[in-house]
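Lab notebook page, bench 4
Experiment: in silico fold of construct C2
Operator: M.H.
Input chain length: 130 residues
Purpose: comparison with the prior construct
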Amino acid sequence: QVQLVESGGARVQPGGSLRLSCKGSGLTLEYYAIGWFRQAPGKEREGIACISSSDDSTYYADSVKGRFTISRDRAKNMVYLRMNNVKPEDPAVYLCAASRGELLDGNWRQFLTPHEYDHWGQGTQVTVPS
């Protein structure tokens, strides 16, 4: 049984910070490229960050670059997304995904697209006060 489970979604103020977690069950995440995606109401699913399996190279969408950080803890079979300086456009359901593909410097943009991923979590919601 393969599962990816996200956690850490919460209600945060603009300018606030949050760390999301992605935990693997039935698969060892260190053997997969991992991506973080988000989907807001009325919007397409957007790839925002990814990390390679081989050397933990990280790549980001322009919308979050400089604010979000993806990282991996191999011992815990976890991948994280640190969100700093949350903006009004950031609220969404955030999902992690695992890919059997090899993420390289020459193809990383493909790993910000859903088509590259084999396994998906169910998402964790990030909201802001209204």
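Observations: The longest strand covers residues 18-25. DSSP finds no helices and ten strands in the chain.
Next step: discuss at group meeting.
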